[in-house]
């Protein structure tokens, strides 16, 4: 049995991960730490486990094997480096950290300690993503020229997001670094890593973080990736468009069906593509890596690239220019 400590209930998905720990037959929650004592004590009481106020004390315990990290993004680096050095396996909410420099410090600590790291990038495992990858592997769209992925909700205008999600220091940004992570890593999956990123942030509700955002990814072959996210859009469907010289794939416009129209198919109409079974969750994959001594190489690779893209987008918006990934500080 892998004995897990929950590190913070800051993130809106912390209780979702709690449920995943509880439902996996190979893991159990044995302790809670939180940077806010009251919140941590409340969570620990609900779970019937000890609340340990001092993080170093918790990480020093030999009856804890692993941690789930849901802390504010700005302390991910400090928390995860400490956890790795203490020999604890790590499952973390995205992003790994806001900057490439911090990510590299975390990865170095993880590798040196030999612990297992997996990042929550859930849409890599969804059925529509797997269907899209199969279409691309068959070459049905030809040379890819554009991908557009959008994810948005009305959390900032319907007031259901926690107030700390608008805290620039804690979050490192707003809609793009939160919701926008998903369309960003999917665009990366479909098109590869771009040479540069441009971003424009909107502030519809006047908060200190953006609540409306678009990032444009530019590629050497002329392809363009478009990433859209927002906290101020009602009834905005999650959607994917992938375009190429031989065809187009659509999903979520507005129904949850993958459709393709391709010059390489006999039909000249839109064809519905069967979606395969969903892969197991990132959390369950992490448990497998811990038990089997394997590495989440693909997952961590995409997570590192995600931070590169997010950092470049943040710089681009601040400086009003395209930012090359080669500019980022290691």
What features would you describe in this structure?
This protein has two domains: 2-115, Rossmann fold (3-Layer(aba) Sandwich), CATH 3.40.50; 123-279 and 310-327, Dihydrodipicolinate Reductase, domain 2 (2-Layer Sandwich), CATH 3.30.360. The longest helix is centred in the last third of the chain and has 23 residues, at 297-319. The protein starts with a strand and ends in a 6-residue tail after the last strand. It is globular and about 60 Å long. It has helices spanning 14-23, 37-47, 55-60, 76-85, 100-113, 127-137, 155-158, 168-171, 181-191, 282-292, 297-319; strands spanning 2-7, 27-33, 66-69, 89-92, 117-119, 144-152, 196-202, 212-218, 224-230, 239-244, 247-251, 258-262, 271-273, 323-324. The protein contains eleven helices and 14 strands. A nine-stranded mixed beta sheet has the order 13-12-11-10-6-9-8-7-14. The chain has a five-stranded parallel beta sheet with strand order 2-1-3-4-5, sandwiched between helices. Helix 4 (76-85) runs parallel beside helix 5 (100-113) and helix 9 (181-191) packs across helix 11. It has 330 residues and is α/β, with parallel strands linked by helices. Helices cover 35% and strands 23% of the residues.
Question: What's the shape?
Answer: globular
Secondary structure tally: strands: 14
- Helical residue percent band: 25-40%
How many helices in DSSP terms?
11
User: Sheet bearing the most strands, described?
Assistant: 9 strands, mixed
Which stretches of 5+ consecutive residues score pLDDT under 50? none
The domain tally reads 2
Strand content: 15-25%
Order of helices and strands: EHEHHEHEHEHEHHHEEEEEEEHHE
Q: Can you tell me the CATH superfamily of the largest domain?
A: Dihydrodipicolinate Reductase, domain 2
Radius of gyration, whole Å: 20 Å
Indicate the CATH class of the largest domain. Answer: Alpha Beta
Oligomer: single chain
What CATH calls the topology of the largest domain is Dihydrodipicolinate Reductase, domain 2
Query: Mean pLDDT score, rounded?
Result: 98
* Strand order across the largest sheet: 13-12-11-10-6-9-8-7-14
GO molecular function: nucleotide binding; oxidoreductase activity
Pfam family, one: GFO_IDH_MocA
Protein name: Gfo/Idh/MocA family oxidoreductase
InterPro entries: Gfo/Idh/MocA-like_OxRdtase_N, Gfo/Idh/MocA_oxidrdct_glycsds, GFO_IDH_MocA-like_dom, NAD(P)-bd_dom_sf
């Amino acid at each position: 049995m892998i004995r897990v400590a929950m590190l913070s209930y800051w993130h809106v998905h912390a209780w979702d991960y709690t449920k995943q720990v509880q439902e996996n037959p190979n893991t159990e929650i044995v302790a809670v730490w939180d940077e806010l004592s009251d919140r941590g004590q409340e969570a620990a009481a609900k779970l019937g486990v000890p609340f340990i106020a001092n993080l170093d004390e918790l990480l020093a315990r030999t009856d804890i094997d692993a941690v789930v990290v849901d802390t504010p993004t700005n302390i991910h680096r400090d928390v995860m480096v400490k956890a790795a050095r203490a020999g604890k396996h790590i499952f973390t909410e995205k992003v790994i950290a806001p900057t490439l420099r911090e990510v590299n410090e975390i990865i170095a600590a993880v590798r040196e300690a030999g612990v297992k790291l997996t990042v929550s990038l859930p849409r890599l495992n969804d059925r529509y993503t797997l269907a899209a990858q199969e279409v691309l592997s068959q070459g049905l769209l030809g040379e890819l020229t554009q991908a557009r992925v959008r994810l948005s909700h009305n959390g900032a205008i319907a007031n259901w997001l926690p107030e700390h999600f608008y805290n620039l220091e804690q979050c490192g940004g707003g809609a793009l670094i939160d919701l926008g992570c998903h369309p960003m890593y999917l665009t990366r999956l479909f098109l590869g890593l771009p040479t540069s990123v441009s971003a424009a942030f909107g502030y519809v509700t006047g908060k200190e973080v953006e609540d409306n955002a678009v990032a444009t990814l530019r590629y050497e072959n002329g392809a363009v990736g478009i990433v859209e996210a927002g906290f101020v859009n009602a009834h905005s469907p999650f959607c994917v468009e992938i375009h190429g010289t031989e065809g187009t794939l659509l999903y979520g416009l507005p129904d949850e069906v993958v459709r393709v129209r391709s010059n390489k198919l006999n039909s000249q109409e839109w064809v519905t593509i069967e979606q395969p079974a969903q892969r197991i969750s990132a959390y369950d994959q992490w448990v497998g890596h811990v038990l089997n001594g394997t590495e989440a190489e693909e997952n961590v690779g995409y997570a590192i690239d995600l931070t590169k893209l997010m950092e470049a987008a943040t710089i681009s918006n601040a400086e009003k220019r395209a930012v090359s990934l080669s500019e980022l500080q290691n």
